Structures are given as structure tokens and as C-alpha cells.
Amino acid sequence: MNTLPKCPKCDSEFTYKDGMLLICPECAHEWSNDADDKTDEAPLSIKDANGNPLQDGDTVTVIKDLKVKGSSLVVKVGTKVKNIRLVEGDHDIDCKIDGIGSMKLKSQFVKKV
């Protein structure tokens, strides 16, 4: 049971998916499936330690002492971080901290001010 769409060029039903593309083995036509592309554009939904939604430009406070990897510096509890930027990945907050510089934080260790 192939639920993939037929080839728009030759109308073959033997299409298959390779990564982000759909491919027809009969005519070698490649195209992207627009239905799959629309589902990937969901906005980031990142929440702080208390469950409050975060947005770009928010100010947050660190709720736990955080060691800076590769350094002897520590981000202390109560440190305010202004103008955060949300990114995808494990460390989902990109920011600058006074006295330390640019770094990435996990949202589970901050709370919204």
C-alpha cells in the first residue's frame, strides 16, 4: 500500500521517498512533497523551568549554578540574561552574559522574568 502521490511527470505509482524528495524510478523525476514541507514549519515552542513560554528578546534568570564548559567560570544563580534568542537543539537559548560572553543555555535552567 503505497500512500505516496503518483509521479507528476509520467503518472507512475511506483514513487518512493529519499530524504526530503520524492523520486520516480521509471522516469527519474525528483520533486518535493508540499504537504510534508508545510508540517515542518511549526514555530518553536520552548518553555522555561516553570512552564512559561519563551520568545526571542525575553529576559530570563538563571535558577541554578551552571559551570561553563572548558573554563573555570560559573554562571551564578540569579544572573539575569537579557535579549535571548531561541534556537533549535539541546541548548535552545542563545545569549550573551555580562562578564562571560556568548553562550548557549538549556531552557530548563532558566525562568522568565
UniProtKB/TrEMBL annotation:
Phylogenetic lineage: Bacteria, Pseudomonadati, Pseudomonadota, Gammaproteobacteria, Legionellales
Domain Protein YjdM N-terminal, residue spans: 3-32
Family matches, as InterPro entries: YjdM, YjdM_C, YjdM_N
Residue span(s) of domain Protein YjdM C-terminal: 46-113
The name this protein goes by in its record: Alkylphosphonate utilization operon protein PhnA
Similarity comment text for this entry: Belongs to the YjdM family.
